[in-house]
Amino acid sequence: MKTRLNVHYYFTLLLSAFSIIQVYYASIVGVSLSLAIFLLIAILPICILGINLSKIKLDKDAFILFIFVSIHFLLVVLLNNSSTGTVVSTINFIFVLFILSVIVPNIYDKNLATRMLLTISLISSMFLIFQYVFLHVFNLYISGQLFFLEHKVSVMGHVRPFSLFSEPSAFGFFNAFGLSIALNSEKMKKRNLIVSIISLAMLLSLSTTSIGLLILVWLRWKTPRISFRKIKISGLFYLILVILLLIMGLQLNIFDTIYEHSFKGLFSGAYAGGLKGRIGNLSYAWQYHSNIVNVFFGAGVVDLDMFLPAIARIYVYYGLIGYLVFGVFFARFFMYSSKFYRTFILIPLISSFFSDSIFGIQMLLYMPLVISYKGIKTDSFILE
Hints:
The chain contains 17 helices and two strands. It is mainly α. A two-stranded antiparallel ribbon has the order 1-2. Strand 1 (25-28) and strand 2 (31-34) form a beta hairpin. Helix 1 runs antiparallel to helix 3 (35-49), helix 4 runs antiparallel to helix 15 and helix 7 (168-183) runs antiparallel to helix 16 (343-351).
């Protein structure tokens, strides 16, 4: 029993910190992979041995997507001359879906994961605030990565801090979940302070993704709770906090920076750097297929010449049928979750318009939580 508990603990800990660990790379027998992938492969046999086969659970929705992607991959390999990149990327995606459909329902500890995600979110937010202060007061950038390990991160740290993650948008994506957990943990100690720190850090990251998800999480939390007959002290605190964040954003030129990076030239076609890989490249995706079969079924996980957000990648990889399959997949989780837990679905869906978060290893951050809380009818975490 002790071994099983250890398996649950380490597997859950690995998935909770996956977004940070995947920044680092390691080479074993000439193969260079993310350290997070190496650790996951290493712990997988122990996880399989730790599953009680007589009571094995299976997430049917994730398993159906696993079957679809596997069959699609076999057809692409048989009918097309697939590149090494296509094979590796697709196998990686199939591996992730296997983890989600078979391992997560049996090994993942949602209560531990909730606490770990909140803890990592708080620590990374405090560090980002520390980075921002040193960057703008002393003109000194403090890296959040371990110098003695090989890592791949954005080169924009001297302009926009991103804490322990690979880039500002990755920080915002992760901390949107942490903020959602904090806002909905009504009995948690020092909740107001934690919410303030995470919200401030998401603002200071100067990331369009962070700001957008910050607004989404706050609206999802407060909209159904507003009451003009009874306004609690905590409600007044958060109202004041939002006003202070808006004032700080204006005073520190945060919104100007975001505009220059993401929205400048939106209507003229001369897209800013933050939009080139989102809107600027969409025509590349819509014109990618040259025959009707690919329009409906896609070309597989092919190597792309430029960055595309997930909403466009679905069409390139899986065609129109891909929109149907992925749409049903996320819709079923949305339908069978309470109003509060639906935020966990909305975060990656909104992010899919400017990131690739609904593909590959990024799913290991949020889908285990979504799977674990599916069907639970409650609107609050219980964290002491």
